[in-house]
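Exercise 3.2. Students should predict the tertiary structure of the chain below and write it as structure tokens, then compare their answer with the key that follows.

Predict this chain's 3D structure.
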Amino acid sequence: MEKEQDCHDWLYFLPSPALGQRPPGISPQTHLLYSKDVGKLKLQILTKPDIPHSPPSMITKITGNLVHISGERLTLAVESFEYEVFIPEFTRRYLQEMLGQKISLYTIEYLEGNPMQGRLTPRLIGFLNSIEREFFELFCQVDGVGVKKALRAMVRPVQEVAALIEDQDAKGLSTLPGIGPATSERIIAKLRRKVPKFALLIARESPTHTDVQRDLVSEAFEVLRALGHSESDAHRLLDDALARKKKYKDVEALLHAVYEGRNA
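Answer key:
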């Protein structure tokens, strides 16, 4: 997909679909103009403030019955529809014992795919409150941290990650999945003055492992990944161990429980 920019608009040129059809993933509010001189469809997203246009159609909150949860995604049943929603790891841990219950998620939307291939798939990412959603959007503004990397990195609650940034703890941030030392420094430089309110967020009690320190769980998860386990397998093994509601004093004790569970 080629792109041109002037002082008013963003212009995208895509291969022209059949007459009357819209390219996949393109919002109905987006202006489409066919350009005969280039033989392609011109997708025009108006950005000039004084040009009237309809607001984008976005899902900002969704409420439904939790019918499935696995890894980084869950399925919500809303009347006759089912929606797939991506969630960060700390949200998954909170919701995993709420199957069949009615829940609400504050969401953001983004398009995933390769525009050059003409395929853009809309995705939803869900959070338990609007503050967590706001922090995620802020986190994604850091150079080198896109939506996918931010989603994978959020294994600890927002207030803990915000505290690491506020304390300029680059070493602590670099323990988050996919966040290395260089990215940690960029996160601190970009967000340090913007995160104090997030660090004050009151921690909610998890229905599964309130007595286990979250950084201990995150460290055990990374050890399992380093040992060759897939993300879904590591999640499952840890969830089985934590479901026994025992207290684990360190990572070794938690991993020992994981080992016992596999051989039970």
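Discussion points: The two ends are 54 Å apart (CA to CA). The longest strand covers residues 102-114.
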